[in-house]
Amino acid sequence: MRPETISWTGQSVERVEDAALLTGRGRFIDDLGVRPGTLHAAILRSPHAHADILSIDAATAAAMPGVAAIVTGRDLARLTTPMVAGLKVAVENWPMAVERVRYVGEPVAIVVAQDRYLAEDALDAIEIEYAPRACVVDPLASLRADAPILHDKAGANLVSDRCFRYGEPEAAFAKAAHRIEVSIAYPRNTGSPMETFGVVADYDPHEDAYEILANFQGPFSIHAVMARCLKVPGNRLRLRMPPDSGGSFGVKQGVAPYAVLIGVAARIAGAPVKWIEDRLEHLSAAVAATNRVTTLKAAVTSEGRIMALDWDQVEDCGAYPRAPEPATLYRMHGNMTGAYDVRNLTIRNRVVLTNKAPTGLVRGFGGPQVYYALERLMQRIAVALGLDPLAVIRANLIQRGQFPYRTASGALYDSGDYVKAIDLAVADGRLAELERRRNEARAAGRRYGIGFAAAVEPSVSNMGYITTVLTAAERQKAGPKNGAQATATVSLDPVGSVSVHVASVPQGQGHRTVLAQVVADVFGLPREAISVVVDLDTGKDAWSIASGNYSSRFAAAVAGTAHLAATRLRDKLAAIAASQLGVAPAQIGFAGGAVFATGDATKTLPFGRVAALSHWSPALLPDGVDQAIRETAFWTPPELSAPTQDDQVNSSLCHGFIFDMAGVEVDLDTGKVRIDRYVTMHDCGRVLHPGMVEGQIRGGFAQALGATFYEELAYADDGAFLTGTFADYLLPTATETPDIAILHIETPSPFTPLGAKGVGEGNCMSTPVCLANAVADAFGVAELNLPLTPARVAALVAAPEPARPASDRGRAAELGAAKPGDRTLRGEGQTKVAATPDAIWAMLLDAEQLASIIPGCHGVRKLSETHFKADVTLGVGPVKGRYKAEIRLSDLDEPKAATLTGSVSGALGAGGGSGRVILSAGEGGLTVISYSYEAAVGGKVAAIGGRLLDGAAKAIIGQFFAALARKAAPASAKTGFFARLLGRRG
After folding, report:
1. In whole angstroms, how far apart are CA 888 and each of 600, 849, 863, 892, 913?
2. Which uninterrupted H or E stretch holds 562?
3. Which of 178, 743, 778, 784 is deepest in the core (most CB within 10 A)?
4. SS3 of 239, please?
5. Backbone φ, ψ for residue 646 (5° rounding)
6. Of 509, 504, 652, 635, nearest to 561 (Cα)?
7. What is the mean pLDDT of each run of 10 residues along the chain (986 residues)?
8. For residues 336, 339, 341 and 346, what is the CA-based torsion angle, rounded to 10 degrees?
């Protein structure tokens, strides 16, 4: 008997994508062919965190062989307008610096040449004169009245300050038995995908139209921002995405300003232009998650019940509030009470600007920052009241009978059973065993802790949530914005084959596999029979402003919409088959590649024959069926309404649930945290592909490990970017990622076509705070900020260091005391040269002699007896570039001592410093040269890491004195120190 249903959905079938990806046949942006004559771009970036651009001299670079065009900020301003942001603020947000730079790594010029190598070489020939300004990198410091202002027209670094009140929070705090508070400084981090940004752009002067290929993630609201910036209507900006993308984790929405830059470069060059970002560019200036300072207070009963919450959040969006920011601050607005039934709530949201790269969307955006504070608070309540942390969580949970549940700030939680999920996690995750291990470890004097975290995972964002940053009056003036429209097209070709096309570009999530499963089930076909297309072309394909792959919307919205389109087309095929088989449409079934009348095996047609009828014999279509060739479904859920007058907003459609628990042991000698067991429970509604759900959870966990223990995009006080390579911005590997226990319950969403919810971001939100709570439990500490590096963890129990000896304090005062995150290089040394002090002194004041002994020097100009300018090429690790150097001598004591003060600037960075050189006569006619120095660096050079910098400084100084020794000693002299040294080497 023929089966009437085939259920592919819910099975862990083999991924369609893997065969090509695992054999190196993926089609990423750098793999795709380009038009003949395509040029290549390289971007010159600011070495300063804050400076005025006084002049740009690109004449030498423009004359270099192979250089086709050079684009500066003034060129950009002539052809574009500033990019709009979600904030109504007087900030001109250009994709490239115009007259002023505001963060290290900001683009200041573009070279377009025949190949990337020529373009990179030409960058070194561009001379820019800067006038540095004071900068600010701390978000709280940026609020001070005396802080340097980034944007003069804005008048302050505080660009948004909104207060929200729900329920009766003041009354709740007034009668609360306890007030518990936590303060959190959440650091910057990023997604670090394997593939960086890439753009290929062309401009058609006849149509005044841009065609841009970019590994762009969306959301497509950014398409309108880009078109406006390029000063063309939306139908003159054709945006295409490649079939494959090497990861994104949210950050590839940040390719938008570069798409504008390369589009303008193509227009000026008169040819297509390609640009592929390098890793240092990506880390320093692509997209960072916001760093946030949070103070969270709770009004709590003696039993641990939360009566009210008071949030104070200061969001650091970097130098510009770049769209879609402040999305990271407001995506969680409806979820600020988490999994807890709290009816009284106040929120203060402040958005500030600092001299750091602009922020954007990073996996879980907003969630890690919120749940780190909220779940640290839950643990602190338990400690303060002497309660079990799990009991505090249970006492505050939303109960099963309350769903759909409306939060105080407006979110509509669709479904869930949080109590059951925790009960199963505690039982199947063997909490009792973890507690036994903790007791045994502590009895033996070891540090062992258990942590918990409960989190609601929002998915399918309401496009109107970002407008909550506006007042009700401002929203009314701008017009309502809401919804989460998804689109999908299902097509039948003349031989009855099925194709699916969606407006959601994957970055490794397996879209083609899941869509094939879903659509195959609708038509009763083998999943291999379904062809799925996921590369996107805004000039041809169906899409909307809400389209794209973000906010875990694929399973719930995109796959569900594909199901709707396929169902509509199937119903038309059922009507066609019913007319041919002489039965009612309700009797038609689809299975095994056939269309048949249920209960009558003789009435059967091949699926391909029925599916092809609209192509071959449209006149035979029954009444009521116009065509059965293509169906495009547009779906938006009615639950996603615009923010109310009272600032309530259902910021996401679906709300999954996560409960994590972990046992960790900390090595007191090294500060290393060992995860003994990690258990994560998920409710993501109906599971469409269990294997890929597990992959998403494990990937989110690995990314969260990085945020917990390793990753921080760090800046020095002067705005220098400090973590530009993977030697300083550490990522977890498979070696550092332990196995985890994954558990599930399913409470299908009543709001989505398939009952699915999102699962792609969960552990990024829950794992950092779960592990932090475990470490806090191990040490009994109240304050704990990420990342929990071994040094930071070891410091929790380390004894105070002994006072530094007086002699060392004197030297530290002379050279300057080191500061945390300092990129100041300090050193001292001594060498011997076979020449008199007078001879060496003369060499130090002779331009030609200096040119011959300074490492990498191309020439020295003597402006006065004590003032020199030099052109040098210096390399530090992977970074090498050409610099303009200026050197002055002061405090002269001829021929005994002098102070050298200098500065360098170039495409790769800027720096300055001073040193004291002392010459004294030694034995055997030698001169002893003693020196001490202090130098500060910025730009790319500062980003490559302290170990490389320190070693490079010592190497360059060593090269200088070795060259000085060779130059000063007579060529025929084979005696003394250098003769003995050469003899030993020979």
Report:
1. 99, 16, 10, 11, 11
2. helix 560-581
3. 778
4. strand
5. -95, 15
6. 635
7. 66 94 93 96 97 97 98 97 89 96 97 98 95 97 98 96 98 98 97 96 98 88 93 96 92 95 98 97 95 98 98 98 94 98 98 97 96 98 98 98 98 98 98 97 97 97 93 91 93 96 90 96 96 92 85 94 97 96 95 92 93 94 94 95 96 98 95 97 97 96 97 95 92 96 98 96 96 97 95 80 52 40 69 83 79 78 82 67 77 85 70 82 84 74 59 65 69 40 37
8. -10
- Counts of helices then strands in the chain (DSSP H, E): 26, 35
Supply the DSSP string of 690-756, one letter for each residue. HHHHHHHHHHHHHHHHIIIII----B-TT--B---STTTS----GGG----EEEE-----TTSTT-B
Q: How far apart are CA 293 and CA 314, in angstroms?
A: 5
- Distance, CA of 378 to chain centre: 28
Which residue in this structure is represented by tokens 């207070």? 297
Phi, psi at 175, each rounded to 5°: -105, 5
Global pTM exceeds 0.70: yes
| CA–CA gap between residue 430 and residue 418 (Å, rounded) | 18
What is the C-alpha separation between 306 and 522, in angstroms, rounded? 47
In the three-class reduction of DSSP (H, G, I as helix; E, B as strand; rest coil), residue 891 is classed as strand
DSSP codes of every residue in 579-616? HHHTS-GGGEEEETTEEEETTEEEEEEEHHHHHHHHHH
In 93-213, which ranges are continuous DSSP H helix?
116-125, 169-174
Distances (CA, A) of 371 to 387, 399, 659: 20, 20, 12
Instruction: State the residue for tokens 């594909």.
Output: 562
In whole angstroms, give the CA distance from residue 569 to residue 627: 9
DSSP code for 443:
H
Helix (H, G, I), strand (E, B) or coil at 768: helix
CA distance 693 to 514: 11
How far is it, in rounded angstroms, from Cα 771 to Cα 779?
Answer: 13
- C-alpha distance from residue 619 to each of 585, 592, 640 (Å): 19, 28, 42
Task: Check: CB of residue 385 under 8 Å from CB of residue 304.
Answer: yes
Q: At what angle do helices 511-523 and 560-581 cross, to 10 degrees?
A: 30
